[in-house]
Amino acid sequence: MSRTTLSLNTQRRIMARIAENLPDDLPEEDALRWVNDCAELKKGLRGLLMPEINWLDQLVQAENDIYSAFLVRGQAIDFSQFKATLKSHGEEHISRWIQLGLEPHFLPKRQFRQDEKLRGWKVKPKKWFWQQMAACTIKRRNVAGELVTVTEAGFDGDTVLIDTRCKPAYDNGRQMFADDEAFLGGLIEDLRSRGEIARYDSGQQDSRFGVSSLEWDEQIRPALEARPEFKGVSFRLELAIEANTIPQIYGRMPRHKDGQTDTWVWYEEFFEGASRRLDGGSSDGGGLAHVCYSEVHSRWDGGAVRPLGVVAILPLGS
After folding, report:
1. Predicted TM-score (pTM) of this structure
2. How is the chain split into domains, by residue range?
3. Which of 316, 311, 313, 143 is nearest to 233 (CA)?
């Protein structure tokens, strides 16, 4: 008998079952090849008796477990789009994104109500946000680039790349997002050095702070999407409801402490028109509940950009 933790009786029962279920048409020469190649036989039996969960199944299962803890018990989510999207990009590509501090996740299509009770939703956007939505003052660009009124707070049902970094605490403008050089810091520094966006007077030139909403839209986002590692990924800013819920859904991310730092980030939505944009997240204004707005051309040493990647399914052969 082989060296195993199984009892002698269990070993005998397994071997008997294998012998009973050998294919009737298994050629003698193939059977002898297995007998003579113990390593291959062991590998084959391991794959049969102990199937390993591959990287894709692990990601899907982890996502399912996370939402099971956040949503109301029994709410099912279809992860087929998430799985197909990740499969089209492949493990190597996804590993590169993770190295950049971006994790692939799924934001299932659903709406959030102000009075909704979810197990993991402890902090909701402040009352002002819901009031403005009801008043039809919150806008968002559609696929044609036109501003349309946002009437509900929710997820779009996309596979996304979430920036896992926590907002830093304010330090007179010198604060920095951690390990950001390879993702956004180097790109911003390059744009500043070439005069395409304004230089930053309060800290390092690779800082995300001191960037206007217009600079994000017109220079930073296109430069980010042009990078080869982001083929099939379009970038935008996080919606207010995404910035509010992501730290509460993904509690193991560094940014689960986002509401505890006194800096803020730009959001994707606009307020009343194209000249003002939502922002929020500062502990001084209520942390994860904080939602406000600023002029799109303004630059603040306490306000930064945080991209969200929307991942599309790549066609076969891409």
Report:
1. 0.83
2. 8-49, 55-311
3. 311
